[in-house]
Protein 1
Amino acid sequence: MPTCPFCNESNPSNVGVCKKCHATIPQEESPHGDLSEFDQEILGLTKGGKKIAAIMRYREKTGAGLKEAKDAVESLEERYGVQSKGAGCASVLLLAAILPLVWRLFA
Ligand SMILES: [Zn+2]
């Protein structure tokens, strides 16, 4: 039951707007409830230590740039507390691999 932060009216779940004062109500966050199938797929890959694959998958699906995709995957990881395995070496290698591409994109 989200309570309106403005008038303290109790509102039914999943209403975006307070029934009393019509203010926008922040939705209660459930840690995995708002995960789309695609987010779960990405998280599954990063959990398995396949972060690069996750980034590639993200790009393939969204058409995002490399940096954008990497940021999105990392923010997903952060939000859901995923520790990517072997982040040390792998991320250095990944950076070494993608930096020239990123520079080309933004230069
Ligand atoms: Zn209200």
Protein 2
Amino acid sequence: MRERNMINEKIVKEFKIFRNKLIEEIYLQQYMEWLALTTSSSSDILSDIIVASTERVKKLECSQKFRNILDEIVNNPMNFDNDIYCEAKIINKRIKDNTKIYSRQLCNALLNVKRNYILAKQKNDFQIVKPFLQTFIKIKLKEEGISNYESILSKKIVEISSQQVTELFKSIKYNIPLLIATEEKVKYTNCSKEDMDKILDYLIDLVNLNERSLEIYKGDESFMVSFGTNDVKISLNYKEKNMFEFVTKSCHELGHALYEQGNNKNHNRTFLSGAASTTMHEAIAIFYEKFIGKNNLLQAFISNELLDKPECFYFTPAPTPIRINASEKNYPIHILIRYEIEKGLLDGELKVNEIEKIWKEKYKEYLGIDIKNSNEGILQDPHWFNDKFAYFPSYIVGRAYAAQLKNEIDKFMAIDEMIKINDLSSLNNWLKENIYQYGAQYGPSELLKKSTKEELNCNYYLDSLHLER
Ligand SMILES: [Zn+2]
């Protein structure tokens, strides 16, 4: 028995050495990406460092010794501490999902797509990248043995079955007339940099973010990177002209930051930190964007009292061709179009040659929009040109999570009342207790069930859009 314990201790010690090296490399890469987007550091040098680090990661993950250690832990959960067991499971999954070793041919094909996508965007012409995308998909399907869309979808979004996805999009398609029926009220109030500073100070205070461990970059893109509970960085779009857009998009990033800051401190620098899944992370950000940032009381307070600027608005009858600018009601239609096209492509029913035409036809048919050029159409999202197929549905699943969480939270508190007294601590405590603190310890389905006492139920989302089902 004592001997067994000593062997296990040795395994854990070795596990931690590998794990720490991996985490260091991941942080290094994240930090380089942060520098690339927030400073004028030479992008050549940064990308050299990233590439070298990626190679070291691959080497670590391919190490037979490391894999044996992981197997030993995963196959003998009783012999190890639960945290170590969970971490080993997470790393194992990561290795399975990520270390598909691209062949040189596939690697080159993808690089060509990425490069020519940038070029195509500059020239506003899909034709430039089209042949490269065609070649890439052909090699990808063959090398990865993909026969249909479903096989990719089930790997990408673990939280929902392909059948649920099919049903969800069927509902969305059936409800298109309802989703485009109403005129959208768009609020618009001009805001200056000083206004944005004021709003940001107010929001950080409102959502109880710890300022001491938060770095904010005022740039022209919105995103978050995290190095554990005491070092979270967000970039916010300070080029934004519309105060209301600034409020909602900032709330989105603050939501991501809250998730990270709310993790269990003991999980810092381990694979247990972070989120149950990227979709769950997105769900929390969407929650803050939709239910805090878009809250009418909050917007009225910021506009009338904080900035002393009257709320202006106009009505727009026309949907936008751009996904990220779409209204909450139109949004699922944008995703439906992408879903139908990528499904067609990977099921072998659509050719790359046809997709720009089909894109235009679907925008006309579903949203009544004439797409004027490639940038406004098929080139607007980078996903397909970065090998991110079957990723779009996760945006809808994230919304479904957010709606289900909202339904549960409404049982315990009233967000409007909390906004009236400028105090969201009950909401933050609930989310911390039920979601954030677990980091990546539980998978998304398990965590959702634990926190809402129910499996994923997309009806909350469909109901929030007042759709028929
Ligand atoms: Zn996000």
Protein 3
Amino acid sequence: MRETNFLIENNARHLWHPMAHPAEMQATPPRIINAGEGVEIVDIHGKKVLDAVGGLWNVNLGYSCEPVKEAIRRQLDELPYYSTFRGTTNSPLIELSYELAEWFREDGLTRSFFTSGGSDSVETCLRLARQYHKLNGQPERTKFVALKKGYHGTHFGGASVNGNANFRRNYEPLLPGVYHLPAPYTYRNPFDTTDGAVIAKAIARLFEDEIAFQGADTIAALIMEPVLGAGGVIVPHEIFMPLMREICDRHGILLIADEVITAFGRTGAWTGSRLFGVKPDFMSTAKAITNGYYPFGAVMISDKVAEAFESNKTAAGSIGHGYTYSGHPVGAAAALATLKETRKHNVAANAKARGDELIAGLEALKARHELIGDVRGKGLMCAIELVSDREKKAGAAKDVVQKVQDVTYDAGVMVRTSGANVILSPPLIVTAGDVARILTALDAGLTAARG
Ligand SMILES: Cc1ncc(COP(=O)(O)O)c(C=O)c1O
């Protein structure tokens, strides 16, 4: 490794960062993170902070999960790569598909298709949803419905169902035949209410209206996150996802649950769908499936969809989709070890308990800081939305949000900001003491930003 000065001088000079403006990165280079231990990360200056971002919603078991590291090392020695395209497979992958069928059985999902990450998983769901209808004799079902504020990655299909303008505008035109419903967002919505149940029913009516307008027989699937993550941690009312499921069922529309964030315990339940008592037709997963230690993902497939493909005897059932790294043996080995550790530590229960503490602490901060307009969360996915004026709900200025982030970091905790939202998604192994540390540092950040 080159010396510190070299790294600092060349930071953001020869690479473009995802989700950032290259000029801005050159003017204000990003923090260089060099090490991780437990729930903490260490920057190039040796400063150690608690990672309340959890990598990027994915390092659920923290940075010192030795069994996962060991599984990766062992698999690299045994078989570092081999293709899973028709004709070959590998042993850890077969075992993983068995384990995942057990893991997701309660969600009605028993087949898996492997990918290199969340965007790949979403793309796979969208493509297989269309194919399902084709081989079921309904080839006109090609359209997708999604939620505003939803985040579904950045491939063209995923970006097309994405519900945030900043991931769409610069890349338009996107896929035709995609329609968006309002987000189940109690703080800001077009329904003039803060009642989550009223909002859920209003969106359901709009969904029905859109179906009637488009023709049910033209719609392939609805894609939604059970709890919307990157769009600002929007927690729908508990009736929302079941309502969406019921409407989909009545109209022959598939339901894709995008659980890239929520699939392995983050909401306090093992899956977001289970949290709301819903069985989706497809589920996209990635991120925490390998604890973030290896780029990997899995699409989980329901029995209904599996039956349609597996009973088909024509080329229509053949999957013309997949990635060089689908079913990578090192990723599979990492995922197997991660599942075992995830279950052993029952991180979903800890996410629920610590999440309740975090939300209570954020509400207490809201009572003392006018800057906080809204507090949201479920389990260990939480957000505060910053405003310059509570009455008018005017979003906080960029420099104010940055100040909160910077001072919180100086006080020993890394948080992520997205627009006027401060997003908290720490590893699911945090203790009550860690939660207190996050709140204390955030308090310092909010106090400094008040000026
Ligand atoms: C719900 C959801 N879907 C898809 C993605 C895309 O995943 P990736 O960044 O691994 O491609 C993300 C990433 O944050 C996500 O949160």
